[in-house]
Specification:
5-stranded parallel sheet, 345 residues, 3 domains, 6-stranded antiparallel barrel, Elongation Factor Tu (Ef-tu), domain 3, 17 strands, Rossmann fold, SH3 type barrels, alpha/beta, 8 helices
């Protein structure tokens, strides 16, 4: 089979390409030019492709990336929300536009280095968690459509991170020692505030208030805060305080105690269902409200179109509007959508 691999220059995408080539497939690397930092990764990707024994092409998607990922990211932060740009990029940029480029070159499928699995099924492909619980990346893939899953491969789905390192080491590829970044690829040094300022966001001073609206201090712009944040609030109190919500209409940051962060109900919109049958009231799932969160047990309270209301079995904290919420049934991804609102317990 002719398979294109999205190659960043890191160890995971390199290992994915290597595995496919060793299995006898006709493999080519595709590197996305997305932003100003892509030049450095292009150099790394060329070396990775050489080590994996395949050719590689650079695909300029910088304009589409700015319109589809960066602009909505900036807009969301300016409105006091906490966006999840990687899910948007995976669906609209990597798995759609990059696949279009692969198809134009005569390749039938697109592979990536994600740690997730796709299980064949008579009705549709099933998205599953990766074998390595510590590395599972199915959360970031939950917005992929069933059509996209049918033309996508995740060669590392059955691998652990240690096995990937060993594979590259055995092949004499030194990328196995490379560091991994947890920051967004387009935000230099993880400095969100500076990035937003450079993007033209004009922060307005406002008040930090408690849950009853009593002023506790002032801030220099809501872009420096996110729901669930504890450190760097710029105020002192007898007990730890956390950001409860952000009101962009009044430029107000509301803070409260740990107990006040707990929510009982979660409302999801634009839910991308990855199973053939509809979600029903009373069904029970596990839900992740952010990529690093532990799955929480929940029950469906309302299911109307692509909108869901979930009741947590145990109250949850740090639930931020704008983030993605992903439903699981054991290892199977039921679907994902955007957190619209939550109700305090």
């Amino acid at each position: 089979m002719r398979i294109a691999v999205a190659m960043s220059g890191g160890m995971d995408s390199t290992a994915a390409a290597l595995l496919l080539r060793k299995d006898g497939h006709d493999v080519v690397g595709l590197h996305m030019n997305l932003h100003t930092r892509s030049q450095a990764s292009w150099v790394s990707a060329q070396e990775a492709a050489r080590l994996a024994g395949i050719s590689i092409h650079r695909v300029d998607l910088s304009s589409e990336f700015r319109d589809t990922v960066i602009k909505p990211f900036v807009s969301a932060y300016a409105r006091g929300r906490t966006p999840s740009p990687c899910l948007i990029c995976n669906r609209h940029i990597k798995m759609t536009l990059l696949f279009d480029q692969a198809r134009s070159l005569g390749y039938q499928k697109l592979a990536t280095g994600h740690y997730a699995r796709i299980q064949p099924d008579t009705d549709m492909p099933i998205l599953m968690k990766g074998k390595d619980p510590a590395k599972d990346q199915s959360y970031f893939l939950s917005l992929l459509t069933r059509e996209i899953l049918g033309r996508t491969l995740f060669p590392l789905g059955e691998y652990t991170k240690d096995q990937t390192r060993r594979l590259l080491r055995q092949e004499g590829i030194c990328l196995w020692e490379s560091d991994e970044s947890q920051e967004l690829c387009f935000v230099p040094d993880g400095n969100y505030r500076e990035f937003l300022l450079n993007e033209g966001v004009m922060p307005r001073p406002g008040f930090i208030v408690d849950a009853h609206g009593r002023p506790l201090g002032k801030h220099q712009g809501i872009i420096g805060y996110t729901v669930g944040q504890r450190r760097g609030l710029g105020i002192s109190a007898k007990e730890p305080l956390y950001v409860l919500r952000i009101d962009s209409t009044t430029d107000t940051v509301v803070v409260g105690t740990r107990e006040q962060t707990l929510v009982s109900t979660l409302i999801i919109q634009n839910f991308n269902r990855l199973r053939p049958d509809k979600i029903s009231i009373g069904e029970q799932f596990e839900v992740k409200v952010r990529s690093t969160a532990k799955p929480a047990h929940c029950t469906v309270e309302e299911a109307s179109g692509d909108r869901l209301s979930l009741i947590f079995e145990d109250y949850q904290s740090g639930v931020a509007p704008g983030q993605a919420a992903v439903l699981y049934s054991e290892d199977r991804v039921v679907g994902g959508g955007w957190i619209e609102d939550c109700i305090q317990g």
